[in-house]
Amino acid sequence: MRVVVAGSSGLIGTALVAHLRAGGHEVLRLVRRDPAGPDERGWDPPAGRIDAGTFDGVDAVVNLGGVGIADRPWSGARRQAIRDSRVVPTEVLAGAVAEHGVPAFLSGSATGYYGNAGGVAVDESHPSGSGFLAEITREWEAATQRARDSGARVVALRTGLVISPSGGLLGPLKLLFGFALGGRIGPGTQYMPWVSLDDEIGAIGFLVETASVDGPVNLVGPTPVTNAEFTATLAKALHRPSAFAVPAALIKTVAGSMGEEMLLYGQRVVPAKLEAAGYRFRHRTLDEALAAALDRA
């Protein structure tokens, strides 16, 4: 297949391009600078411009990227940047998919769509929740509408917390545990929808090839864990103590709504569509995912 990938230089995008190519697919990377090789095509999302010929013979477009959610405080300007870096490029690509008749559009989203869902099992039919992240993901997914209206297969990639040898969730947590500051956050009962990087890219590749799957798809591991379970498992893998605990009141005071949504909200998300479609996870448990990531770190 011929696949266009936007956001190909990030943690997930870099690994996905390599995975798709290893599987025999031809990959074209959208870049926001002058193309430097035959596999690159230029684009400028704010201007709505994409190099001519980019979508000739293309079977699928994968849309990743967006500025970081947790690397800066949520000022008004940062909230706008988080929104614009996701919604605007998605609208541009959805329009291009519609205009050029591309059969499939797989676009980024996040489990933040569900808000603070508590302890109930959350599959793809669960309604959206409240909060800034839920609002942003609703807009992000709605931005694909032109592609869907054109008859394209549209998949919303509702990604959880990615466990990777470098980058993602694991890096800062390893640092905290190294200083004996690792442990549960708030009550510890909030669920953390984790996924290994191997399964994140494996699932996206599977969805590129599986024409029977459309709509929202939860990209998470099949065995959800609470924050307390997550930190205990990580402490064991790192051979470090996990007695430290951060009170919820402190998080709300220091980090405001950003801290509350990122650290205290929880979703017990399950990959119902992936499993029903026959995707086989490489890492079914958190222990397996952490062991694989730490082994390659």
| Average pLDDT, all residues | 93
How many extended strands?
14
Cα distance spanning the termini: 32 Å
Broad structural category: alpha/beta
CATH architecture: 3-Layer(aba) Sandwich
The count of helical stretches stands at 10
H and E string: EHEEEEHEEHHEEHEEHEEHHEHH
The major β-sheet equals: 8 strands, mixed
* Low-pLDDT sequence parts: none
Q: Would you identify the CATH H-level superfamily?
A: NAD(P)-binding Rossmann-like Domain
User: Shape, please?
Assistant: globular
CATH class: Alpha Beta
Q: How many independent structural domains? A: 1
User: In what order do the strands lie side by side in the largest sheet?
Assistant: 4-3-2-1-5-6-8-12
> Could you tell me the strand content as a percent range?
15-25%
Estimate the helix proportion, in percent.
40-55%
Examine the coordinates and then state which fold CATH places here, giving the name of the CATH topology.
Answer: Rossmann fold
Radius of gyration: 19 Å
Domain DUF1731: 246-292
Protein name: TIGR01777 family oxidoreductase
Family: Belongs to the NAD(P)-dependent epimerase/dehydratase family. SDR39U1 subfamily.
Domain NAD-dependent epimerase/dehydratase: 3-210
